[in-house]
Amino acid sequence: MSGTGNFPLLSSFELERQAAIQRSLAIQACTRAAVRWLRLLVLRSARFARGLAAERRRRRAIRQLQRLDDRTLRDIGIHRGEIEFAVRNGVPARGRRDLRQERQNSAPPRQRAA
């Protein structure tokens, strides 16, 4: 069975079989692409949801600190204007050192036992 040119003539059964194979390969490729896309969508959605939850926790902490009086904030080591920065970035180390020095300077001198 030879056809015109270099291509052999195929029976209708063989043509259907080759078409089914090609169709199956195309469906598999589309399925793999869809699964990759869906996985990426789920991962990014989860990251977005975690980011939203973290932002809600930060805002709640800011509101709680803003409710405190200035003396309590000073004990913590932050000023009222630094609340948002402190919640988002932490209290800077120099601020904590200044607070320790302030406490040492304001503490009454200890008396030595004789």
Notes on the protein architecture:
This protein has two domains: 11-57; 68-105, no CATH class. It has helices spanning 12-66, 70-76, 83-89, 93-106. The protein contains four helices and no strands. The protein is mainly α and 114 residues long. The mean pLDDT is 85. Helix 1 (12-66) packs across helix 3 (83-89).
Number of domains: 2
- Please provide the count of β strands: 0
Question: Percent helix among the residues?
Answer: over 70%
| Shape field | rod-shaped
How much is the radius of gyration in Å? 35 Å
DSSP helical segment count: 4
Straight-line N-to-C gap: 119 Å
What proportion of the residues form beta strands (DSSP E)?
under 5%
The main pleated sheet reads as: none
SSE order in H/E notation? HHHH
| Average pLDDT over all residues | 85
Structural class: mainly alpha
- Unreliable spans are none
Primary descriptors:
2 domains; 114 residues; mainly alpha; 0% strand; single chain; rod-shaped; 4 helices
Set down the secondary structure blueprint.
Layout: H1 12-66, H2 70-76, H3 83-89, H4 93-106
Helix pairs in contact: 1-3
Quick take:
This protein has 114 residues and is an all-alpha fold. It is 73% helix and 0% strand.
